[in-house]
Amino acid sequence: MPAAWRWTFVGLIAVVALAVALWPRAQRPGPAASPTASAQQSDSGVTAAERAAAALADCPRPTGAAAAGSLAGITLDCLNDGHPVDLAAALAGRPALVNLWAYWCQPCAQELPALQQFADRAGPAVTVLTVHSDPAEAKALARLHDLDVHLPGVQDGAAKVRTAVGAPSVLPVSVLVRADGSIAKVIVRPFGNAGDIAETVAADLGVRV
């Protein structure tokens, strides 16, 4: 083979090898994220299983009554399902007892069962809503489960409700809200029992149950 042809052949092989080396490879797809796992956990880190285990009542929903008062503009997530709740709209049209508590608060733990008993006694006459005032939502759900309390509740790690009603930074605090959204009274003490709650609601909200 003439030398010129031999060098031409070698050069051709080098060009082909370079082209193969530079040819773009198809990227192999990475492992797909599990839609089931992501769907079971909310942005707060609380799983659907944790919410289901607590078995809390549904949060109140807007009835169409005019929303006003100190709680207007506050939207918090429902502990039952994680959905947002417009507090003023949800409470409008009916007297309400809004109870601020936290999972670590021992007086709250003693008071919450009494609130459950009062709510069972009051029925639709008074809305009883708990407000967990600490960022640890999962611990709130576990605490309510342990106490066998299934009241509707919302998560308020930023203490929006306490700030709005001007309550001191202690717990528990109960806020009595009139049907028109105005605040009847802010109670800075734990209730002793369901009868104590009923007497206070009768005196300050005018509702006897």
Helical content class: 25-40%
The Rg value, from CA coordinates, equals 30 Å
Number of helices: 8
Instruction: Provide the spatial order of strands within the biggest beta sheet.
Output: 2-1-5-4-3-6-7
Major sheet attributes: 7 strands, mixed
Number of β-strand runs: 7
From the N-terminal CA to the C-terminal CA, the straight-line distance is 112 Å
SSE pattern: HHHEEHEHEHEHEEH
In short:
40% of the residues lie in helices and 15% in strands. It has eight helices and seven strands. Strands 2-1-5-4-3-6-7 form a seven-stranded mixed sheet.
Structure write-up:
The protein has 209 residues and is α/β, with parallel strands linked by helices. It contains eight helices and seven strands, in the order αααββαβαβαβαββα. The protein has helices spanning 3-22, 35-39, 48-54, 87-91, 106-122, 137-147, 160-165, 194-205; strands spanning 75-78, 84-86, 96-101, 127-132, 153-155, 173-177, 183-187. A seven-stranded mixed beta sheet has the order 2-1-5-4-3-6-7. β6 (173-177) and β7 (183-187) form a beta hairpin. The protein is globular, with a radius of gyration of 30 Å. The N and C termini lie far apart (112 Å). The model is unreliable at 7-39 (pLDDT under 50). Keywords: Cytochrome c-type biogenesis, Disulfide bond, Redox-active center, Signal-anchor, Transmembrane.
